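@channel sequence for tomorrow's demo:
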Amino acid sequence: MNKNTYRLTLLSLLLILVLPVLTMLMCYQSEPLTLKDSHPKNEVEQVNDNIETEIKSPLYVAIGNEVKIKNYFDFIDSIVIKYDSLVPYTLSEHLLVHANPWIIDHLVDTDYYTLIEKGEFLFDQKEKVILFSHDALIIPDTNWVKKYQYKQSQTYLDINVPQYRLSIIEGNKTLHSFPVRVGRNKERYLETAGRVEDLRTRTGKGTIDKITRNPIYINPVDGHHYESTLRDDGRRTKLPQIPFLHPKINGHRWGQLIHPTTNIETLEKAYSNGCIGTGEGAAWLIYYYAPIGTPITIRYDLNVLNESGDSIQLKDIYRTKSKPAS
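structure tokens (generated this afternoon):
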């Protein structure tokens, strides 16, 4: 091999080795340069970088200052608003509270008559502390959320009018069952409606259409607003702040709400102006198991099974063998 041929061969080898590297460098330099951010990432960006599409471990949030019932919903809303942007799912009040079931237990225990049994008289429920400074909330991980969402999709309310019973059912399992009061078998003029109304609780199927978290207590007969109530034990108290549920049945809002009664002696009676009345503790449970959109069935079945599984015939409180009102 002469010198010229050797030099050409060597040059060819060098080009083969160097050309790809030069090409890569040219491509790299053709991209615009981006300066590193001069400010640190905020909390949202940092968390989103970490979780990507899921949270594998729950987050913990300190309560800080104690929270009374009158400020409870504002506080829970503030947590939902703050952390909804930090998680890859839609954070809601109901989801958050179910991830911290002790909150529901505490709310249920604020029932006036439960506290009386424990020797505590509660004049103003709104002033009771429900969350303490040493408490902490869990923001759940993604797997827990998926399980909760599936369970909620299988949950509905069932009310059998002549049985005076409201049940929270998940699939084929009854989670909770409570005594209720229902509408009277009569017609009456209601000031809030401006006409004579059939007070019997109407039956049918529908959903929870609206929720009032801080309700105003009004007597539908005369339109009078109440701020206090006379309890069954003869003591007067302020009215509690417990949400009212508004069902839409067969496409209509009949005004028959699901709400607590402050007089539990009226439970298991046809006593109301059409509404379904519950105990205060039961009302909290129903609220947290029945967010807007939850299916509800209100029926009038006289033939039911008792606790022993035996078939029994209920009293026909509306004096009819057919559905009372539809």
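heads up for whoever presents: The CA atoms of residues 159 and 166 lie 4 Å apart.
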